[in-house]
Amino acid sequence: MLFNSFQYFLIFLPASVALYYLTLYFLGQLPSKVILITASLFFYGFWNYTYLPLLITSIIVNYAIGIILLKNQTKNSNNILYFIFGIAFNLCLLAYFKYTAFILENINSLANSNIKIPEITLPLAISFFTFQQIIYLVDTYKGATKERNFINYSLFVSFFPQLIAGPIVHHKQIIPQFISKINARVCMDSIKSGIGIFILGLFKKIVIADSFGNWAEIGFQNAYTLNILEAWMAAISFSLQIYFDFSGYVDMAVGSALLLNIRLPINFDSPYSALNVREFWRKWHITLGNFFRENVYIPLGGNKKGTLIECRNLLFTFGLVGLWHGANWTFVVWGAVHGIAVVFNLLWRKLNWKIYKFLAWILTFLFVCMSWVFFKSNNLSIAVEMICNMVNFNNLSAMTWEVFTKSEKLGFSLIVIPSIVLSVIGKNTNHFMGKFEFDSKNITMLFLAVVSLILFSIGGNAPDSFIYFDF
């Protein structure tokens, strides 16, 4: 069930919110949380009910390990074996479903063997709920959490607004909200903000992201025949598609949670306004960056053991960031390229060199656009061809457009500049919404306007999925 589907925002979401508040009013906080867990499991099972037991098993096993860690902690026992088992359980689960085919394909290629590669469907959201539970186990092992309530823990993992593609929620950010009496009430300010944020996210997805997605798809499908302008049109289209697609999804997640008076963390802060790649990663997929910084980069030594070790730690961390996104060498290269860029920025800062801000922004934006080519491409051959086309200035004056039609070029030309400007100067949605007051009349008008846009956009076709659903 997609956030941008009528099933979700016209049926499932209103029904879940209404049932939650009715249960809260008549039966109290505990039954209302059970309602949310049930709704979340239904939401997950709607995609593929055969993988619902996987999510439930993962929740039960991690909760049980957490309880063991808590009990042994009070007895000053050695928890290391339980902790290692818990981390191994999560990583093995993720590795089996996400990387088995990738590993076997590379073994076959290197050893010239013919190992049969099983067809394994990647369970929805496995990367996200696995990481959330790893964070919980790490904090439990360190003694940083004392959560023992199974209902609260289950809701933390399965909470439907953020279950599928994040943001990756820390248990300290959300479990206290499930417990709080202040959050367990109808808050009209939260509901109004939630509706407004959800609609803006819907607009980002339907109107902006899906438009650029069409042009990006055409370009990358014809990677070997693109001229330099067409190659850049495709690369910029995907760069804007993935930003508005993912940030639009997060806005809808944040909006959905606000309807239940729950606040999710910010995941984007205008990343395309960054003046260097290091800053870009402080603004892009913030919760994922926090996870790798706290659980990989800092444990490796961070920046505390000299420049050379810091560079090594950065490269290793970004390699894992790339691999987390998908079982393909294109993602590994994408992560490595960003790691190299961050290392370059580190050395640049140590030399105390300066550059004009506008030039720094241009170079950063162009680099990020080019690096997205690896992210989007199905294989390295296509990615290299795209990059070559993007820097091929031969016969520029005599160039003809062979891939994109006149209407596609016109559509791109009309919205590309406003979209770049919006992505650069626009604040995160929470900040943007805080500057406006949405009364019931305005919310109704805005909602009807977006529904009309959706009807116009999809024309009876199934809504487009979100890019990060694949991870």
TrEMBL record:
Q: What is this protein called?
A: Uncharacterized protein
The record's subcellular location field reads: Cell membrane
What lineage is on file?
unclassified sequences, metagenomes, ecological metagenomes
Q: Which organism is it from?
A: marine metagenome
Q: Where are the transmembrane segments?
A: 6-23, 53-70, 82-100, 120-138, 150-170, 224-244, 329-348, 355-375, 410-430, 442-462
A Gene Ontology term for the protein's cellular component: plasma membrane
Alphabetically, the GO molecular function entries are:
acyltransferase activity
What protein family is recorded? Belongs to the membrane-bound acyltransferase family.
| Keywords noted in UniProt | Acyltransferase, Cell membrane, Membrane, Transferase, Transmembrane, Transmembrane helix
> Hey, what's the signal peptide range on this chain?
none
Q: Keyword Transmembrane, does the record have it?
A: yes
The membrane-topology field of this record reads: Multi-pass membrane protein
Q: Which InterPro entries match?
A: Ac/AlaTfrase_AlgI/DltB, AlgI, MB_O-acyltransferase, MBOAT_fam
Q: What Pfam families does the entry give? A: MBOAT (PF03062)
Task: Report any one BP term from Gene Ontology.
Answer: alginic acid biosynthetic process
Keyword match Membrane: yes
